[in-house]
Each structure stands twice: as structure tokens, then as C-alpha cells.
Amino acid sequence: MDVRPALRSQYEAQLAMLEECIRLCPADAWRAGEHPRAFWRIAYHALHFTHLYLMPTAGDFRPWSKAVWHGPILWHDDERGDPPRGEALDPADLLEYAAWVRSNLREWIDALDLDSEESGFPWYPVSKLEHRLVNLRHLGTHIGQLQERLYALGLDPRWRGRGETS
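User: That's the sequence. What structure does it adopt?
Assistant: C-alpha cells below.
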């Protein structure tokens, strides 16, 4: 059984939910909260790790063009150096990042060896397929955090099911 269509569908639905959270977040809540718990930072973190872990291996990861520093382990202190620490990214930036991740989903998922017993990330000793499930669970956890913040503000983001992308 080829699970790639199911993986693509679930990533699409999750990214649609994350994009909705980003769109719904009021300007005064975007930067609110202590680092690293600001709304924008949680949304960025979710996208960054989704992007990272959709790569075949850690060495295949190339940061998004507007990446901000997200910890030395992900940059391996190599010739790329650390990206800028910078200020908070705007909602438009993160919507752009989400759209870019979404536009690459098919290619990235198709490139994965889902039969591999190794994740491709030395700090994550699980099979490639299990790592996909962990990545989806991670993304969903952070979407839940953002949704709870929106619910507390009286906003009601929608659940997206299989194949729902908007």
C-alpha cells in the first residue's frame, strides 16, 4: 500500500489549519507572550520543523529564505552559519512560508524512502514512516496550541479533514 497520498492529504489539511490560525490571529496577539511562546514563534516553529523533517536527511535541509535562528542543532554550525536572529516575522511572511512548504509537499514526500528503518536524523532513531507520523503529530500539537489561544479570544478556527485545504 502506498501511503504517500494519505500523507500528502494530512499535511495539506494540517497546513490549511495552521494558515487559518495565522490569518485569524489579531495583531495585538501576534507578538504577545514570552519567548518562545509568542503566537508567531509557535507558528514559525511548527512550519520550520515540518519543513526540516520533510527532508530525506538532516543534511538535505536548506533553510527557507527568510529563516530566523532556531537553535544550533538544526544548522550544524557548518559553512551556512547561523541565520539572523531578527525580529518577529509577520503573518504575511509565515503565510508565504506555509504556501512554499505546501507547494513542495509532493516532491518532498515522493523523495522519501518510507521503507527505511532510519529517519535520516541521527537524533531521531525511528523509521522514516514513523518519523512522518511524529512530524504530523508535532504539527498538530502546535496547531492546537494556536487554536486554544484563538478560542480564548472568541475566535473559532475550523477543523480540516482529509483533502480539505482551504
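Residues 4-152 form a domain with the Four Helix Bundle (Hemerythrin (Met), subunit A) fold (CATH 1.20.120.450).
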